[in-house]
Amino acid sequence: MSEAPDRPVSPHRAASAVDLESVLARISALQAPTAGGGLGPEDLESRRQGLRDAIEECRILGRREGGLAELTGDEAISALAEVFRLASWLGAPELALGLAETVGALAQELGPAHHHTLTIRFHLAGALRSCGQAQAAVEVLEQVVEGTEQLLGDDHPQTLTARHGLASACTAAGHPERAVELYGRMVDDAARLLGPRHPDALSARNNLARARQEAGDLAGALALQEALLRDAQGTLGQAHPYLLAFDRNLAQMRAAMEADGASPGV
């Protein structure tokens, strides 16, 4: 059995005993690889408890006078981002939501367009999505998109990534029309920045077609997907994973059209 990382003497350590160095060390210990790469039930729960303790110490540090400033450095922000990744890896993304208060305080301290703010807000949005809180994720991602546009500009790859995350969250939150609007802009941006036949530009069109389907425009989605597949067949190799995915999506749309009693396109 793999050895569990060291845990705190008590999960309720006095606030005065918590400092940045101890918090970073605790998070680092949770990243240690396990023998054989797997986690047994006891090790899994031990690491989850260790993560709970680390999150609580982050909260304590963030609330202490002068402590929040300690969490604004590069190393501390990287550690906070790692907490979100660890929570997902341990199958407990809800644990990372305990950092929501700290993330909000850091955003206020650093400003909405600071690159550290954007990083931790993006991770928080991912945790919210994983926990089924899509609407809350939308609200966070709106802030991320606005801040990224302000910091990096409309055409920066990170801005495009943030918009994609927002569009996906809008779909999950039951706002398909807004997702269609966002994906439509991404199609235009990708074609302009990368060229209309670039794999990522083709992928953007696939996302738009799926969003149109989610919005109830199955005929429009099918027409988009058929045109996409024709263009992709002339650009991508037959074994390209994008082409295979586009083909599967088209088959699914045609099946949905037939189930609705309409005639699919040819």
UniProtKB/TrEMBL annotation:
Kindly name one Pfam family recorded for this protein.
Answer: TPR_10
Q: Which Gene3D superfamilies does the entry mention?
A: Tetratricopeptide repeat domain
Family matches, as InterPro entries: NLR-like, TPR-like_helical_dom_sf
Give the top-rank taxon of the lineage listed in the UniProt record for this protein: Bacteria
Descriptive protein name = Tetratricopeptide repeat protein
> What organism does this protein naturally occur in?
Actinomyces slackii
